[in-house]
Write a structure and sequence with these properties.
Blueprint: H1 5-18, H2 24-27, H3 32-46, H4 54-60, E1 64-67, E2 73-78, E3 81-88, E4 91-98, H5 103-118, E5 139-143, E6 146-153, E7 167-172
Antiparallel strand pairs: 1-2, 2-3, 3-4, 4-7, 5-6, 6-7
Helix pairs in contact: 1-3, 3-5
Length: 173
């Protein structure tokens, strides 16, 4: 399926309208890549308990979705982002990366979605489950039957917290 930018624009508008609590960086995520990152992260978050629905949701949103190299994984791409979603019993994992979305915007997307999808009610991120509060440690929250950790990194495979104009949102659910 080819990527259609208007799908992302409409979805971003719906999410922005329904999320009055989203912070400024998240609500300003208006570039095609930032909107695509927001759309993919939302699909992962909303389907954390039904990971078999992540691929169809991403495909319906206009992403190219293909089976991943490992069993139980899918890879997806579109509008300047790429990612992977993996599921195992009791755990769902998504990583969404872009060389076009700055770390500050990715952090705003993560915080905004945590507020709109899960009712996260803190004004700032609370850090990792172990209590670390660096700029990429993100936030953790309790959802039905899961602890969800949303964290960030530069795009690529290093996992490093480097603000180089790229970003990754990592959802461990």
């Amino acid at each position: 399926m080819s990527l259609r930018y208007p799908d992302f624009k409409l979805f971003g508008a719906v999410v922005a309208i329904t999320s009055a609590t989203a912070n400024a960086a998240w609500s300003q995520a208006s570039s095609p890549s930032a909107t695509a990152m927001q759309t993919a992260a939302d699909a992962c978050m909303r389907n954390y308990g039904a990971p078999d629905q992540i691929a169809p949701t991403l495909s319906a949103a206009g992403f190219k979705v293909v089976p991943g190299m490992d069993e139980g994984t899918v890879e997806f791409s579109g509008a300047g982002i790429n990612g992977i979603a993996a599921a195992s019993p009791g755990r769902t994992y998504c990583s969404i990366q872009s060389t076009e979305v700055p770390l500050s915007v990715a952090r705003g997307i993560g915080l905004g979605l945590a507020k709109s999808v899960f009712g996260y009610n803190l004004a700032t991120e609370n850090g990792s489950p172990e209590g670390q509060k660096g700029p990429c440690d993100g936030l953790n929250l309790l959802a039905p039957q899961r602890l969800i950790w949303i964290r960030y990194a530069q795009a690529g495979n290093s996992g490093a917290c480097v603000d180089d104009g790229t970003s990754a949102i990592i959802l461990d659910m």
